[in-house]
Amino acid sequence: MLTVKNIRKTYGNLVVVDNLSFEVGDGEIFGLLGENGAGKTTTFRMIIGLLEKDKGEVLLDGEEVNYQVTDKIGFVTEERSLLTKLTVKEQALYYGALKSMEHDQILKELDKWLDRFQISQYKNKKIKELSKGNQQKVQFICAILNHPKLLILDEPFTGLDPINVKILKEVIYELKSENTSIIFSSHQMEYIEELCEKLVILVKGKTILEGYLPQIKDDYGIKKVVIKGKNIPLSKLEKIKGVGTILEKDNEFIIDVLNGEVANKIFQVVKSSEILKFEAVTPSLSDIFIEKVGGYHE
Predict the structure, then answer these.
(1) Lower Cβ count inside 10 Å, N or C end of the chain?
(2) Which of 94, 177, 199, 81 lies closest to 135, judged by CA?
(3) pTM, whole model, 2 decimals?
(4) Domain residues for 243?
């Protein structure tokens, strides 16, 4: 388990991370979200010990993170951290050695993962000769050679086509099944929504929303109703208190509502019409993120 307790980082008068706390359990995928400049990268660097904290603790299985503990951590950075003049094999040997792995063990793991990602033919190619997508796969492979106890993924799907995104997701779930604690950060909310069980959203280094994703969505409530049918009494719907914009798209009416109670009132009005579809829609994570984060700019 990763435990982050009240960590803080400042540069002069600028507070980059402000008393941030969270836990990532064994086999749990945790989302750390925020706009550019929200403090995510600084948080990652404090977790792995690259940056010194002003205050707070970072514990992995109850042990303060130090150079011995970092052998148990894998990190895929948003900006690729590959040595482009090395071959894929040389890069893996270098990273593996930094994680205290034996030479033969590194090569065994490398061959396994190169085959899994269908890039075995590039083993002796220089990194700079690979496409951006294949470089991303090599970076991911290097991060998991040591079967990390904690894996940090910062925009891991960058440059990957749908087939390789699918492979990467499968591997992430396999690592989860091996009880790896995973922190995942991405601006592509559909990946966060699919993969993460729990999350924190940061604005200017401070937590503005946290918790388990299903509960967050339940607490946020129903915000739209979608209706398809004939003889829909729009004039009556517009008069219901709590009904917002009504948009017609692809023969459906998409209605913004204040909450689930308003959705029920809409149903009572339209139930006698020829209804082909009536759906009360919970918000997407993207909707929640935009509302929560956007509110801090108003």
Answers:
(1) C
(2) 81
(3) 0.86
(4) 222-281
